[in-house]
Amino acid sequence: MHKILVVDDAAFMRLMLKNILSKQGYEIVGEAENGLEAVEKYKTLSPDLVTMDITMPVMEGVEAVRLIKQLDPNAKIIMCSAMGQQSMVVQSLQAGARDFIVKPFQEERVLESIRKTLGA
User: Fold this and answer.
1) How crowded is the C-beta side of 68, counted as CA atoms within 13 Å?
2) Residue 97 CB partners (closer than 8 Å, separation 6+)
3) What is the spatial distance between Cα 101 and Cα 45, in angstroms, rounded to a whole number?
4) What three-state secondary structure class fits 63?
5) pTM (2 decimals)?
6) What pLDDT is attached to residue 29?
7) How far apart are the first and last CA of the chain?
């Protein structure tokens, strides 16, 4: 079972993602509300995959991706973005994210991205 860390400053968005992933048998090993918390939890939880929001307080998602990739060059991170954040998505991919999904989440697209990124 793959372990996933869900990162989003909105509790509702984290809940939506957790519901989609749990139904498919993925284990949610942790949640974070900002990029700094995500980096700390990545160190302690060693998840197989991270879903990372772009716009968050304390530390943006793009910066968190850079820091996580420094810790673990093989980290698998999927960015979650709202419409109209194309330039941030490009920065995220350049920082090392593997894919991105757009909010509001569509279950099939989320699962397709997770499977592709995990190589399942």
Assistant:
1) 37
2) 52, 65, 77, 78, 79
3) 23
4) helix
5) 0.95
6) 98
7) 11
